[in-house]
Structure formats: structure tokens, C-alpha cells
Amino acid sequence: MTSDHSEQIRAVEMALEFPHIEVIGIDLTESNPKIVPGNCRFIKADVIAFLEEYAGVFDLIQCRSVAKHVPDATALTCLIGRSLRPGGVLLFADAITDIYNVDKQPYPLALVNDSASNDKIRSWFARWLFEATARWTTKAQQNTEGDKLHILMREDSQFEYLGQKTYYSPINWDGGDQEGILNGAEIGKLMLLNVLDFLQASRPSLLSEGLTEATLQVWDKNVRDEVTAPTKRMFLKWVVAWAVKV
Ligand SMILES: C[S@@+](CC[C@H](N)C(=O)[O-])C[C@H]1O[C@@H](n2cnc3c(N)ncnc32)[C@H](O)[C@@H]1O
After folding, report:
1. Tens of pLDDT along the chain (246 residues)?
2. Which of 16, 90, 21, 82 is CA-nearest to residue 60?
3. What is the distance in A from the centroid of ligand 1 to the CA of 30?
4. Residue of minimum CA distance from atom 5 in ligand 1
5. HSE-up (13 A, CA, CB side) for residue 180
6. Which CATH number covers residue 179?
7. Which residue is closest in CA terms to ligand 1's atom 15?
8. Which helix (H) or strand (E) holds 236?
9. Per the domain annotation, does 138 fall within a domain?
10. Which of 69, 123, 193, 218 lies at 20 to 30 Å from 26 by C-alpha?
11. pTM for the whole thing?
12. CA of 232 relative to ligand 1 center, distance in Å
């Protein structure tokens, strides 16, 4: 399992709910949740190097929003398969790099030469997300978008692919009466914090990859205007896909 932030909470909750299991969270960064039960530990490591040490031992591996970041997602999938016991389960999850409207259609990207922030048709956050993820060095890696993760599982003969589910997280609203949205208002608030954090965290990579400070100032303001006082309803789309080790 790879882990960080909300994934840490999930790991701790899982360990508390099932005291007879051992839960391990892996991330390149330090994980220090306030409460860590005895049957749970967090390891700061490269998931590839970590998994290379294990074969046929894990019952469940959850890998959320990480396949996109490793240099070779196919190799990661293969290693996960090797480290699971037969019958063990892989849960892959990731978002899709688009921002969706209430009809579950992607907003077109805001136009870079049009600095107006109140365009109701196009989205500045969609533009920022696109520009940031397009610059990730591993972005050339295929099949790591949420709706493509199933291909990684289907192409690896160690797995029987079983299915996938889609979720839409509202950004700074409650998601309305859309089917399948639980705790929409809370998710909406958390997603706003996520977006603002993401703006901050992705800024250095945008600067180092050719965008100017002046451009980013305008875009940053436009995204903040868009998400903090929304004139349009926005969702981020997630997909969870699962497979069993044969
Ligand atoms: C978008 S965050 C997702 C965090 C967490 N898994 C979640 O779902 O909330 C991507 C995470 O991948 C981690 N990461 C990237 N490459 C990694 C690697 N080779 N091994 C372990 N973790 C890695 C980063 O440190 C970062 O925390």
C-alpha cells in the first residue's frame, strides 16, 4: 500500500478496525499520523525498491495516485502482482486530469491568451491541471489516468481484472443530488483545500518548465476566483479499479 495524508488515515482506520491484520503504508515522504496502532507502520521508501523485497506475501495492496508518478507503471503493476499472494487483491485508484461539469462532461480548458477569470464555459483550474500534469516527467507513461488503470491490470497475466467504479468529488459545493455522492458538502470543502494546496505545490514545476511568474500570477488568481467563489459547478472524477492475483 502506498500512503500519504488521507491514505494514512485510511491505513490507521483499517488497522484499528481489523486488529488481526498488519497494515504497512509506503511513501517517498515521511508519514507521521497522530495515532499509529501497533499493527500499523509507515515506511519512507521507494515503492519499487520496497516491493522488490517481497514475493507472494500481501493479501491486499491499495495503490492510489502513485502509478502516475513512478517511471514505469507497468513495472510497478508487475511487482505488485509478484508481491501479492494468489487470491490477493490489487486496488488501483487515480483521478482523471479533467474538470467535469454537472452533466459529467469535461470543461474545455481556459484559453491562455484570454485572462478573463469569469468564463462560464471554460475552466482555469482545468487549464492549470492540464499544464501541471503535462509537465510531470512520467506523464509520458501510458494508462495511469484513472479510467485507464484497468489496462495495466488487464495487460499483466498475473491478474484477473474484476471491475472499476467511478466517483465524482464536488469542488467547493455539495455535489447536489447526484447519485453516489456521500458526504458531498464535506468532500467539497476538502477538495477546495486540495485545489489550493495543489496550486502551491505545482507552481515550482510550472516555473521550472517554462512558464513565467507573471503568467502564473494571472492564472493563479483566475483559478482561485473560480474555485473560491464558484460560478460554475465542478467535479474531479476518480476511478477505482480492482483485480485479483490468479
Ligand atoms: C498524488 S500523491 C498521492 C498520495 C496518497 N497515495 C493518496 O492517495 O492520498 C502522490 C504520492 O506518490 C508518492 N510517490 C511518488 N513516487 C513514489 C515512489 N517511487 N515510491 C513511493 N511513493 C511515491 C509521492 O511521495 C506522493 O506522496
Report:
1. 444 467 888 899 999 999 999 999 999 999 888 899 999 999 999 999 999 999 999 999 999 999 988 889 999 999 999 999 999 999 999 999 999 999 999 999 999 887 766 678 899 999 999 999 888 765 556 789 999 999 999 999 999 999 999 999 999 999 998 777 889 999 999 999 999 999 999 999 899 988 999 999 999 999 999 999 878 899 999 999 999 999
2. 90
3. 11
4. 4
5. 7
6. 3.40.50
7. 69
8. strand 235-245
9. yes
10. 193
11. 0.90
12. 30
